[in-house]
Amino acid sequence: MNKPIGTIQTLEVVREMDTGYVLENDILLHHNETDSALDEGDMTEVFLYRNKKGQTIATTQLPHIQINIYGWAEVAEVLPHLGVFVNIGTSKEMLVSKDDLPLFEDVWPIAGDQLYVTLGNDQKGRLLALPATESIFEREFEAAPDRLLNTTITGRIYRTGREGSVGITEEGYRAFIHHTEQKEEPRLGEQVKGRVIDIKEDGTINVSLRPFKKESIREDADEILAHLEENDGVISFSDKSDPEAIRDTFHISKAAFKRALGKLMKQRKIEQVDGKTYLKQ
């Protein structure tokens, strides 16, 4: 009976050969995939995968992720034309296909980020790492207590989208980050730290990656000054500008932009004339 790849099996050693061992069902266990000396008839616990030749290979390096068993896997390498490879705890890194990653590569994970994945097979029977869906994460969620409001919390992003990003915190709370509450869209698999700004009736939380308003105004004002200095002291923005144009350029809301402009005008650092903002000399 064929043993399914992507699973851990206990198999009998049939014979030894120069490069390793042949297990039952003609499965190969190379010397570099085990730290133990084995004899014919021994039973050994192994994880099964396929090599590039399509042969079923065994390793005694037992991963924490298998077929239908989920876990966090660290991203080891990114290949734009393929996807990303993750480390599941064996010598063979598993591919997360680009088809299972965000459309825009600027929010793809980078080396060191972590994805919550299981193993599955593609149409050719090759093992792939498959990111968990929302329904899988629902099993992991805990209800957040009211005392978390306005506290700082750490989590990891598992979904990105136009409306915002979704993550799971270290405590298991589902966290939504609206696009207005982040200056830059976090990467899939990125660890972020933010402030809890709302706790919903269902126990999920809304998180902001922006600092408190006073600190945020200062940062936004500094960014506007930087834009002015980079553009010879003038930018085609004012407190009447289009909100989307403001967001595309400064990655903040129009309200935040107006607060920062107000701070700079009060400090007599800028002036607005005919829909433009000028740096005062």
TrEMBL record:
<dbReference type="InterPro" id="IPR040764">
    <property type="entry name" value="CvfB_WH"/>
</dbReference>
<dbReference type="Pfam" id="PF17783">
    <property type="entry name" value="WHD_CvfB"/>
</dbReference>
<dbReference type="InterPro" id="IPR048588">
    <property type="entry name" value="CvfB_S1_2nd"/>
</dbReference>
<dbReference type="Pfam" id="PF21191">
    <property type="entry name" value="CvfB_1st"/>
</dbReference>
<dbReference type="InterPro" id="IPR039566">
    <property type="entry name" value="CvfB_S1_st"/>
</dbReference>
<dbReference type="GO" id="GO:0003676">
    <property type="term" value="F:nucleic acid binding"/>
</dbReference>
<dbReference type="InterPro" id="IPR012340">
    <property type="entry name" value="NA-bd_OB-fold"/>
</dbReference>
<protein>
    <recommendedName>
        <fullName>S1 motif domain-containing protein</fullName>
    </recommendedName>
</protein>
<dbReference type="InterPro" id="IPR014464">
    <property type="entry name" value="CvfB_fam"/>
</dbReference>
<feature type="domain" description="S1 motif">
    <location>
        <begin position="150"/>
        <end position="210"/>
    </location>
</feature>
<dbReference type="Pfam" id="PF13509">
    <property type="entry name" value="S1_2"/>
</dbReference>
<dbReference type="Pfam" id="PF21543">
    <property type="entry name" value="CvfB_2nd"/>
</dbReference>
<dbReference type="InterPro" id="IPR036388">
    <property type="entry name" value="WH-like_DNA-bd_sf"/>
</dbReference>
<comment type="similarity">
    <text>Belongs to the CvfB family.</text>
</comment>
<dbReference type="InterPro" id="IPR003029">
    <property type="entry name" value="S1_domain"/>
</dbReference>
<dbReference type="InterPro" id="IPR048587">
    <property type="entry name" value="CvfB_S1_3rd"/>
</dbReference>
